[in-house]
Structures are given as structure tokens and as C-alpha cells.
Amino acid sequence: MQQSDLNGILLMNKPQGFTSHDVVAKLRGILHTRRIGHGGTLDPMATGVLPVFVGGATKAADFAAAQDKEYVAGFTLGYCTDTQDVTGEMLQTSERYAAEYAVKQMVRRFIGPQQQVPPMYSAVKVNGQKLYDLARKGREVERPARDIIVHEMDLLDFDENAQKGTLRCKVSKGTYVRTLVNDLGEKLGTLAVLHSLERTRSGAYELAQCHTFAECEQAMAEGTMQQLLLPTDSLFTDRPAVSLTDEGAERIARGAVVFPRQTDSLPETADTICRVYHQDRFLMLGQVRELDKGGLGLFVYKNFR
User: Fold this and answer.
1) Of 150, 176, 256, 276, which sits with the fewest C-beta atoms within 10 Å of its C-beta?
2) pLDDT over threshold 70, residue 286
């Protein structure tokens, strides 16, 4: 298979110790193509679902990064580090003991919209500089809090003797789970670090769908790599689908508005984002908008052709 033939979304089970960029770099070598990007950074310590976009599908990477994520996180109470996880240097210890019922009650209080201050060891930029670059120089700067949503957060288990537990959380874009753990420790009157993290879901993609480097190497050797790639529109299954007539496809190709009669059924709510097809081929994301003269029309939102 030629490198230009590969197109779609490859779900990788990111191994521990790899950065997300490491995964992309290794896949460039395996797949023999440079048109690869990832959707949603994972820390080197973390494992789990990492959507990787190949060929023309790279246009969709930013949409994956913006979707909700689900994690299973292991935490330890009693100390904290400069990175908020076990890879960092210990800063402080606490002898404060937490009971399981107290941890369970506190975990429930994290559910909902809130603001989170990103950790210094993160790729967030402040005044054009990445925080982790500043942190490695021993500098700490004020970071603006960001709006996040914790949709779900459960305590799966907690060992009172070891002061170790496991959380499952579903969170919005930009949420740092290690910061949630750090904040949990503070609210319990003690300290906490993240000691393990697995992303179990990214958008609609689950861990069970993911592949390994070895599987990719074997598929390339057998010429079956394309079979491991999901179509780009699988990223948008939560969006309504619209099929265009030949006339509608011709109009959208030149950037003109498509009228309801040139579709099989246009959503009746303005600002709706939908998947757009012609003869079963995915073309783009379209947006329904109100027209100046009344009625609704379909406009290009993101082209994937």
C-alpha cells in the first residue's frame, strides 16, 4: 500500500512512557507517511485511547481534542509533588488520615462546571511560553483559571490503610485529572498525587477499539492497514446526517448555500452542525443557518474532501 492511500482515524492504546508526539513519530515510520496528527494529548505516564489521524483525516484532529474524555485514575493520599503525579519530586508530606466515606463524599462535590488552574508542568501557554518550559527552569507564574466540566466522578475503590484509591471521571476538554486529584487531597485536608492514569474513552471511541504498534506493523506487512482505520465521519456520529442531491453537491463544492430542497432532510434548527454526504460519500460538516430572506440554508462548516 502506498502511503498516500491511507486515510482515516487510527485508535491507539498509548503505551506508558511515550508522549503523544512520540506515538505520532513512531507511526510515521511504521506507516511511511508524514500526514499524521493526534487528537488530545496524554501525559507520558498515561495510557489508553489516543485517536491518531492519518491522511486527509488530519483535518478532523482538533474536533477530537475538543470532545469529552473518560479516565480511570489511581491516586495516593499523604504527599504531593511538583508535577502533581508520581513522576515529579516530592514537595511535602501529610500525616492526615482520610476515611473512605469522607473521600466518597468529597468526590461527589467535584461534579459540575468549575474553574481549574492548570499545573505548571503542562503544555498550556502563558505569554507565549509553555508552562513546562518555565517549570523546568524553576519558575512558577500565575496561571489563569479555565472553565471545565466534570460530568461524572466516582470513587471505584479506596484502601484506607494504604490511603490509595481509584477514580473514574468523565470530563470536558482541557481538564487535568492530576489537578483534580491534587485538589481532592487539599479538600480532604491532606495531600494527593496521581499514580496511574488510563484514558478509557475519547468522545465515542473506547479502549476496546484501540490498537498497538505491533498490530500496526503486522497490518502494514500484510497490506491490511487501511482496515484498522476508521472513517473520518465516525468522529461525528452524534451529529445528524444530511444527504445532498446532485444539484446540492455541485453548489456546496463551489461554496454556495444549499437550500432544503437540495437535501434529503435539512434540520430545522439554526446553528445545527451536521454530517453532509453525497452518494454515501462523506464530504464535510455543514452548518444550518437562517437566510437573509427567511428560511434556512446549509453552509460549509468544515470541508473534508
Assistant:
1) 256
2) yes
The string of DSSP codes covering the chain is --GGG--EEEEEEEPTT--HHHHHHHHHHHHT-S-EEESS---TT-EEEEEEEEGGGGGGHHHHHTS-EEEEEEEEESEEETTSBTTS-EEEE------HHHHHHHHHTT-EEEEEPPPSSSS-EETTEEHHHHHHTT-------EEEEEEEEEEEEEETTTTEEEEEEEE-TT--HHHHHHHHHHHTTS-EEEEEEEEEEETTEEGGG-B-HHHHHHHHHHT-GGGGPBPGGGGGTTSPEEEB-HHHHHHHHTT--B-GGGBS---SSTT-EEEEEETTEEEEEEEEEE-TTSSEEEEEEEE--
Between helices 213-222 and 20-31, what is the axis angle to 10°? 20
The pTM for the full model equals 0.90
- Which residues form the catalytic set? 43
The three cell numbers of residue 69 are: 474524555
β-pairing, 112-116 vs 125-126, is unpaired
pLDDT at 3: 45
Rounded Cα distance between 215 and 164, Å, is 34
**Nine-digit cell string for 112:** 459540575
CA distance 85 to 124: 17
Contact 40, 53 (CB under 8 A): no
With both helix axes pointing from N to C terminus, report the angle between 177-187 and 100-108 in degrees, rounded to the nearest 10. Answer: 120
d(CA 179, CA 24): 26
- Amino acid identity of residue 304, one-letter, is F
Interval 273-285: pLDDT, tens: 999 999 999 999 9
